[in-house]
Amino acid sequence: MLRLYGIPTSGNCYKVELLLKQLGIPYEGISVNSRQGENRLPEYLAKNPFGQIPALELESGVVLAESAAILVYLAEDTPMYGQTKLERAEILKWLFFEQTRIARYIATTRFWVRAGQAEANASLIEQNLKLGTDALRIMNTHLEGKTFFVGERYTIADVALFTYTHVAEQGGFDLKPFPSIQAWCQRVQETDQFFPLPGA
Length: 200
Fold this sequence. Notes:
Largest sheet: 4 strands, mixed
Order of helices and strands: EHEHEEHHHHH
InterPro entries: Glutathione-S-Trfase_C-like, Glutathione-S-Trfase_C_sf, Glutathione_S-Trfase, Glutathione_S-Trfase_N, GST_C, Thioredoxin-like_sf
CATH class of the largest domain: Mainly Alpha
CATH topology of the largest domain: Glutathione S-transferase Yfyf (Class Pi), Chain A, domain 2
Number of helices: 7
Shape: globular
Domain GST C-terminal: 84-200
Structural class: alpha+beta
Domain GST N-terminal: 1-82
Low-confidence stretches: none
Strand content: 5-15%
Helix content: 40-55%
Strand order of the largest sheet: 2-1-3-4
Organism: Thermostichus vulcanus str. 'Rupite'
Number of strands: 4
Pfam family, one: GST_N
């Protein structure tokens, strides 16, 4: 059985757990709390030298790191990773976008706000609010007249982008100017076997 290392309240762990459940893949969840430094313990680093969560341990004992890579691995040979070469390239494009724009600006800002570190990071938050809003604008424009991000079907691009976008307001972002994003978030929440991000 697969083993998923991490904590349910982590957005990056949630992405993987949501996909596992939606694909009907059995797994065992093993708690590794990065906020308490458990991801820096020698026994965890022996499994995952990156020291991140999530990590996915395969039946073979191989351990995969990086949430986007794990999503691709799990979705391979399923419609969740597209049906054509071009769709798969488009999905990868949005996975990279999520990591460089959404996670960098929106997830980080949300973490600082929720952790009581907003004042200490005020100048960075001001910058992130602008850059994160620019990213939301790109997403909203792309979604106009579309159901999902790639191929008019729910894919891992939607899983990745949804996770931190739907809780962006917890970091001070305003989703009201982006009706296409709001409607898309609702559609994601109506997919089979969906469950909410704990704490959202």
